Write the structure tokens for this entry.
Amino acid sequence: MDAVQDRTFEPKIVGFLCNWCTYAGADLAGVSRLQYPANVRVIRVMCSAAVDPVFVMKALLGGADGVFVGGCHLGDCHYTRGNYFTRRRVAMVKKLLEVIGLEPERLELEWISASEGARFAEAMRDFTQKIKALGPNPVKERKVS
Amino acid sequence: MTKCNEIVQDIVRSMLRAKLVDEVVAFGRGINESDIVPLFITDEKDAEKIVTISYYPCSLAKLVALYGDRNKKIGLVLRPCDARSLVELAKRQQVNLANIYSIGIECYGVVRAGSNSHQVYIFPDTVQMDGETKPLAEDVLAPNCRRCEYMVPTMTDVAVRLLPDGGCLVDANTEKGQAVLEAASIAVTDMPALDLTALKERAARWKEKDFGELKKMAAKDRLHYWLAQWEKCIKCYGCRNACPICYCKECYLEPEKQIVKNEALPPEALFHVGRLLHVGDSCTDCGQCEAACPMGIPVSKLYHMLYEELSPLFDYESGFDLATLPPVSTISDKDLTKTGVTLD
Ligand code: SF4
Ligand code: SF4
Ligand code: SF4
């Protein structure tokens, strides 16, 4: 039964991608016709630091199986230091997930530049695989209004 | 136990008389003996109403942030957790600390919410309730107080130390504090060192109990524990309104923000998690949220549990150093030297 579930489980992943780096990296992956799983729903944001932790938690509590945040490499942020703030917030949300009983691995942060199309495709494959192994978000087992 | 009351009343009177402050905010008797209310005192005659009882119905730091005049000099009589909240509010520009003279009362815990005795004074090993002194039973204490290890007000201008015989010692932590003691003609006592070992042990034991139980659960059980707790919520906003760290004039949780669904009851889990995200890094474990909750949800347990995880991660101790900003609204020099996706 579990094995059947595993094979049919297609995780829903929300991806917040920064306009200047990771989104452009995703674009490059696309125009290069690189294959990666279609599980991620991309939301373009102007900076990874524009991802309010509340958005991440809204996605996860709303039933998303994983959240991916992509930003520029440190030092390359279009707004100088936005991604340093992102890193702190992601660290905080991961702790919060642990405390309330969700797997911190459901949230992933990566630095992917505009020229790293192949890395983007790989990150999507890896993360989707990781979430498949974790299974569906347990929040969905209980209907909270 | 009147002696400590008297000394604090004396300090307050002298502060007003010497015009060190324009008004004083403290707890005092309301319409009767068991009615403890926050007082805004401008006339030194009213100082006699002040009590230093082990019952703390709301955050005075928050009251000053909400209703205090930033340009007026304000005296504030508070307990260590509230004094820490005051520092956090100052970091968020909600109070003008330069104009505040804080008198901190040493604290071994306050009585839990809903307790029907308001005539209570709590000491390290004893409790005085309605005139009777008994050994301290820990279930008298508010749950957050059992986890507390900050008994001594080191973050206030003046520190008032309680003695088990009902007396107290007074010390100044700052220059402002010295001015207060001069005005009150109180000689600074050299504080004998206080042995907090037993109390720190109490805090560690209760943290282990409160958090350990939850940590030992399988993650999924913990999730369902909290989801079940939140299902009791009637969305009264009591926790947010009571919390000193929740200072926002425009709160995320209000319906017009459209982040949390408007009419759903119980509110979606994001109602709690949203506030947890905003407060968790700076929670002073003052317990006001939990005391305010009409549904018996262990609110401060959750917030304090996250705080205890975040504090070592960000090397942040909330409520002490005005110059250290809340960890998610700042980055450190150390951060700049690391290139990975984690902080370590
Ligand atoms: S969350 Fe609760 S315990 Fe923490 S500071 Fe706010 S009111 Fe106090
Ligand atoms: S819940 Fe958040 S937005 Fe609302 S008052 Fe508290 S800190 Fe401010
Ligand atoms: S005080 Fe309790 S019932 Fe009221 S909103 Fe907060 S958690 Fe819900």
